[in-house]
Amino acid sequence: MIRDITLGQYYPGSSLIHNVDPRVKIIATLLFIIELFIVNAFFGFAVCAAALALVVIVSRVPLSFILRGLKPILIILLFTFLLNMFMIDGHTLLRIGVLRVTDQGVYVAVFMAIRLILLIIGSSMLTLTTTPLSLTDGMEKLLSPLAKLHVPTHDIAMMMSIALRFIPTLLDETDKIMKAQQARGADFETGSLIRRAKALIPILVPLFVSAFRIAQDLAMAMEARCYRGGVGRTRLHQMKFRKFDYVALLLVLAFLGWIIAERILL
Question: Which one, of 258, 261, 264, lies nearest residue 48 by Cα?
Fold first, then answer.
């Protein structure tokens, strides 16, 4: 389950999506998230899903690898689905004790589940097709206008990039600790919810220690290389918009305009 989390991982490739400017991909991801919250009908979700499927096909990232990232959030999906199904008023379809399932509750539950699934897949595509270094440079470029207001844009971009970069590292560390504890007889699968929660304590303590150790090693490595932030820093590869980047950005903006028009008209 731990290794199934794909957020923060990079899938190497040379597809058109991989070669798109990271600034365009960051903007496209933010606009896609906005579009998901603008949509108020299943038809809009179908269009968003079709656009996302096209991106997945062009990126050449295996669908099985992308869907694997949904496994860790199945509990959240199930909880959200049941919460909406039982808590929304409407015409009663089924009664289970004091709880009742309504038609409006089922509609909202399915609606929210689809939105959450598309949100996770769309966000994962950003990190799956963009290297951590490109992601940092892209975020710094997009935040550069705030530098005139003395906002530490380079530091913010670096922190966000490091956080994403070390998600897989911490997941691997968690998996190693869990296997070590299981080898010593720890049981994380059986028992009540409270018992399983208590069983996680032997995992959390060494995980926090390991996280602080990794952070300290990273800080020492950056200091040893005389890292002093973005002041006076040069880049080997300068980011430049190409024709395809402009076309991709225009397509994303056109899609956003279509979603807004569809929301207003319907």
Answer: 258
Picking from 214, 169, 178, the residue whose alpha carbon sits closest to that of residue 9 is 169
Tell me the angle at which helices 74-87 and 103-128 cross, rounded to the nearest 10 degrees: 160
For residue 100, list its beta bridge partners: 95
Rounded CA gap, 111 and 253, in Å? 24
pLDDT in tens, 120-171: 888 888 888 988 778 888 888 888 888 788 888 777 877 877 777 777 777 7
CA angle, 57 then 62 then 64, to 5°? 120
Please say whether the beta carbons of 140 and 147 come within 8 A: no
Query: How far apart (Å, rounded) are the C-alpha atoms in residues 107 and 83?
Result: 12
For the stretch 207-224, pLDDT in tens is 888 888 888 888 898 888
The Cα 70–Cα 27 span in angstroms is: 23
Classify residue 2 by its DSSP letter.
G
> What's the pLDDT tens digit per position in 48-66?
999 999 999 999 988 888 8
Rounded to whole angstroms, the Cα distance separating 14 from 137 reads 19
Query: Could you tell me the end-to-end alpha-carbon distance of the chain, in angstroms, rounded to an integer?
Result: 41
The alpha carbon of residue 226 and the mean position of all alpha carbons in its chain are separated, in whole angstroms, by 32
Give the sign of the dihedral formed by CA 236, CA 239, CA 240, CA 244. positive
Question: How far is residue 156's CA from residue 141's CA, in Å, rounded to a whole number?
Answer: 11
